[in-house]
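Posting this for the archive.
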Amino acid sequence: MTTASDIMHRGAQWIPAHETLDRAAQLMRELNVGALPISDENERLCGILTDRDIVVGCVAMGHDPARVTAGEMAQGTPRWIDAGADVGDVLREMQDHRIRRLPVIENKRLVGMISEADLARHLTEDQIADFAHSVYARTATG
């Protein structure tokens, strides 16, 4: 059985909820990523921040990214998957919630992240096609 741990990108890092968006952007640049999980004071997942969130939700709204925190941008219930979950469960979670990045948690701690690129490297063409159809077709049509 292929698990979330088998396909994830290791070394994912949190951005604490109290950190500002300019610091989040710097960390994204350093790590060469487009999203960071947001952690609360107990290092528990409380959201995910994307580069698009920073641009559209902060900069384009005329706000100062040095004054807005990652926690202020966290919306909704964050989705995650256990490191031991089957890859089928990973796909279902991402498809059902139409998400493109999924934090991987083990023993209540962040151990990795699964992105579309990880899926492309590890799944069959049929699995990738099903994923793309379910995530993008619904997005395009509403």
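The CA atoms of residues 23 and 66 lie 8 Å apart. Strands lie at 9-10, 15-16, 35-39, 45-50, 81-82, 101-106, 109-115.
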